[in-house]
Amino acid sequence: MGLKRPLQKGMALIIVLMLFAIISTLMMEILFRQNRFLNRADNLLQWDKRYQYAMAAEVVAQQGLIDDLQDDVKNNAQVDDCVDEQWAVQLPPTPYEDAFLSASVQDLQGRFNLNWLISPNAGGFDRQPDRIRELEQLLDSILPDQSNSSRLANEMADWLDSNNIVDDVEGAEDPEYRDRRTPNMPAAHESELRALLGFEVTDMPEDPMLWGLLTALPPGTTLNVNTAPQQVLDAVVGSLAGPDGVKAIVDARADEAITDIGALLAGPTFADLDEDDRDLLKTRLGVASEYFQVMVDVEVDGQLSRLVTRLYRGGGNGEPTAVFSRQVSPLLTPLEPACNPFYNVE
Ligand SMILES: [Ca+2]
Ligand SMILES: [Ca+2]
Questions:
Q1: What separation in Å is there between the alpha carbon of 288 and the centre of ligand 1?
Q2: How many domains does the chain have?
Q3: Is residue 317 predicted with pLDDT exceeding 80?
Q4: How far apart are CA 174 and CA 180, in angstroms?
């Protein structure tokens, strides 16, 4: 009995020490987790705060667009260009409470609409061979390697058209795609081009701003000749009226915005144009816009967020203005200016 006592004491001491070790490890873990939880909550709160600031700036831009439209209606001249218009301003980084806000607005109708490649029929969407060639021509000026332009334009048409038949040698429908299906309906965003079978990493434009030459709007949407960059005019107008037709538009808008497509097409440059081609241009071109993009950058404590909002500004017919997409995107490029960077580049 006398021998056991010191051993029991020793055991008790070891157990107490082990308990302390376990408890302190637990405490460490709890503190570590609490700290992480607080950081995460703080990050989420900060992110949400930047998002709310961006949404507020979006509302201001939206109001600017509505005011501009009301002005146009009052003056009986519905025209949008990216030079003189009220909406075509860029807000430099401006302090607001603890944030810096910068913003810009772009006209989406100055871009090549991928959904022009199809036209709605009774039950679906038919491909438009002439428009496919226009996209091919435009891709020539966007892609670093032009050899892929024709394939991508044809695959885009199959991607959008209702049938599941590869209509041209370079197209691709469901059987060609292993891990995804073709939507067979209008694209929701120009980035769908990247989902095409033939799109390679090497096809990424060297200048990310080149994506700004493309968009995805309803199939019948007109191209605004006052905001379209040279490359888009080359593809859409050049294909029917040649380089002289494009030059006539660029020259006309250099002085002031074009206000009447009919008057423009009645000019001498378009005199030799086939009657059908003239009518086609008349339906495809416009001088005003309904679809816009608002970009807002928010910085709080060195943390950045960008909100890219796309909206439909109800036309003069009293339709309400409505946001149709919001995207929080990484800041890989500067804010896009109102006039596309390639606006005047030949
Ligand atoms: Ca097809
Ligand atoms: Ca198809």
A1: 33
A2: 1
A3: no
A4: 8
